[in-house]
């Protein structure tokens, strides 16, 4: 399997287009034609992580935080350039799965939830995606032909069902002009024709192909159809929400330290309050504060600053800062997802601790 095939496989499940627009995901370093000798999953890509891959005979690293993000002006022996040079010198391929992995239904926040024993998890802030609806008017005898051609390009796919159409019968009427070349009817006379209205949905990227099919397969010189684009709830989004057995914030915070294996957490709010519902946004999720307030008894994220903590207090939202590094659980979580897809390939979760903070 080469990198191109690997990317196709993983992005089929965790698509690149679900990443935030400001992000930088996909193959950051390497060559798509390189054969994959093994995969190392990591939160951050550092020189130590690259050395770990080399020692393991692995040439592909999948990191969560993109090594190449913004502001890299030189690739020299200092700073991030040094890491990039180290990867290239040893022919290490680097793939970033950042906000696309965050937004995946079973992504980073879900993985943290699983680690802390959160039950009945669902997406906290569901994204919306676009869908197109086609209504097309076809003479009765041509209905199956048009539906078949549309099905072949992926129109009428809803979840696990293909060939989804609704047809209703009616009468179309039209008057061809003197210069028209009508399939039925006479120039200058109103014509009535038994027609079917065919309704179906399709992904917006198919729009041009749909129009091509209509032009090529529909018998009329000027087919009548409408395409509407609308928003639908997506199967991906930010964060997770679920439940735990009822306990005090103090007990819950203690348990977080144990289950996440971290030395401390910071609690904002009443330690004696009771919690049973929990929302999580892995990494730095406090920018979603207004959208998550009151969704759950307690909100978990990392990187909460002093004034943001005051904002949370003002809003009455109990929150616990579990540190950005709590995202490290994605190493094992992503390893399991990829190993499941590729049982033949050696997949290892990095054992390198890339937390820049040391607690004393
Ligand atoms: Zn992060």
Major beta-sheet overview: 8 strands, mixed
The percentage helix is: 25-40%
Mean pLDDT: 96
In this entry the ligands are:
zinc ion
Helices, strands, pairings?
Blueprint: H1 3-13, E1 26-29, E2 39-42, H2 47-55, E3 60-63, H3 79-89, E4 93-96, H4 99-103, H5 108-115, E5 119-139, H6 143-152, E6 166-174, E7 191-202, H7 207-217, E8 224-248, H8 249-260, E9 266-268, E10 274-280, H9 289-292, E11 298-301, H10 306-315, E12 318-321, H11 330-341, E13 347-349
Q: How do you describe this structure in short?
A:
Helix content is 29%, strand content 29%. With 360 residues, the chain is of the alpha/beta class. It folds into three domains: 3-103 and 329-349, NIF3 (NGG1p interacting factor 3)-like (Udp-n-acetylmuramoylalanyl-d-glutamate--2,6- Diaminopimelate Ligase, Chain: A, domain 1), CATH 3.40.1390.30; 116-126 and 237-325, Udp-n-acetylmuramoylalanyl-d-glutamate--2,6- Diaminopimelate Ligase, Chain: A, domain 1; 127-233, Alpha-Beta Plaits.
What labels would you give this structure?
360 residues; alpha/beta; Udp-n-acetylmuramoylalanyl-d-glutamate--2,6- Diaminopimelate Ligase, Chain: A, domain 1; Alpha-Beta Plaits; 3 domains; 8-stranded mixed β-sheet; 5-stranded mixed β-sheet; 29% helix; globular; binds zinc ion; metal-binding; N-reg_PII/ATP_PRibTrfase_C; DUF34/NIF3
Descriptive notes:
With 360 residues, this protein is of the alpha/beta class. It has three domains: 3-103 and 329-349, NIF3 (NGG1p interacting factor 3)-like (Udp-n-acetylmuramoylalanyl-d-glutamate--2,6- Diaminopimelate Ligase, Chain: A, domain 1); 116-126 and 237-325, Udp-n-acetylmuramoylalanyl-d-glutamate--2,6- Diaminopimelate Ligase, Chain: A, domain 1 (3-Layer(aba) Sandwich); 127-233, Alpha-Beta Plaits. 29% of the residues lie in helices and 29% in strands. It contains eleven helices and 13 strands. The protein has an eight-stranded mixed β-sheet with strand order 6-7-5-8-10-11-12-9, with helices on both faces. Strands 1-4-3-2-13 form a five-stranded mixed β-sheet, sandwiched between helices. Helix 10 (306-315) links the parallel strand 11 and strand 12 (318-321). Helix 6 (143-152) packs antiparallel against helix 7. The two termini are 45 Å apart. The mean pLDDT is 96. The structure holds zinc ion. The site of zinc ion has 4 residues, from loops. This is GTP cyclohydrolase 1 type 2 homolog. Belongs to the GTP cyclohydrolase I type 2/NIF3 family. It comes from Macrococcus armenti.
């Amino acid at each position: 399997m080469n990198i191109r095939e690997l990317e196709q496989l993983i992005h089929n499940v965790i698509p690149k287009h679900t990443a935030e627009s400001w992000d930088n995901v996909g193959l950051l370093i390497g060559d798509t034609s390189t054969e994959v000798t093994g995969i190392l999953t990591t939160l951050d890509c550092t020189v130590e992580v690259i050395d770990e891959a080399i020692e393991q005979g692995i040439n592909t690293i999948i990191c969560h935080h993109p090594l190449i993000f913004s502001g890299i002006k030189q690739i020299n022996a200092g700073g991030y350039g040094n890491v990039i040079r180290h990867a290239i010198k040893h022919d290490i391929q680097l793939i970033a799965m950042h906000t696309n992995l965050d937004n995946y239904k079973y992504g980073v926040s879900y993985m943290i939830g699983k680690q802390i024993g959160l039950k009945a998890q669902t997406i906290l802030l569901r994204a919306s995606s676009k869908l197109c609806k086609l209504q097309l008017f076809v003479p009765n005898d041509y209905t199956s032909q048009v539906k078949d051609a549309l099905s072949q390009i992926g129109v009428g796919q809803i979840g696990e069902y293909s060939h989804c159409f609704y047809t209703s019968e009616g009468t179309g009427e039209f008057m061809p002009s003197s210069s028209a070349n009508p399939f039925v009817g006479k120039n200058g006379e109103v014509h009535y024709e038994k027609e079917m209205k065919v309704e179906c949905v399709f992904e917006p990227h198919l729009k041009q192909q749909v129009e091509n099919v209509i032009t090529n397969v529909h018998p009329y010189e000027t087919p009548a159809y409408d395409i509407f684009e609308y928003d639908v709830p997506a199967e991906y989004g930010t964060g997770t929400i679920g439940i735990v057995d009822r306990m005090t914030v103090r007990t819950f915070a203690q348990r977080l330290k144990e289950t996440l294996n971290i030395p401390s957490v910071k609690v904002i709010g009443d330690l004696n309050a009771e919690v049973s519902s929990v929302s999580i946004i892995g990494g730095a999720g406090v920018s979603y504060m207004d959208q998550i307030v009151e969704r759950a008894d307690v909100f978990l994220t990392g990187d909460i600053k002093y004034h943001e903590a005051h904002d949370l207090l003002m809003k009455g939202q109990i929150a616990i800062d579990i540190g950005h590094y709590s995202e490290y659980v994605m190493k094992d979580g992503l390893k399991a997802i990829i190993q499941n897809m590729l049982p033949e390939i050696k997949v290892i979760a990095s054992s390198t601790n890339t937390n820049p903070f040391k607690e004393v």
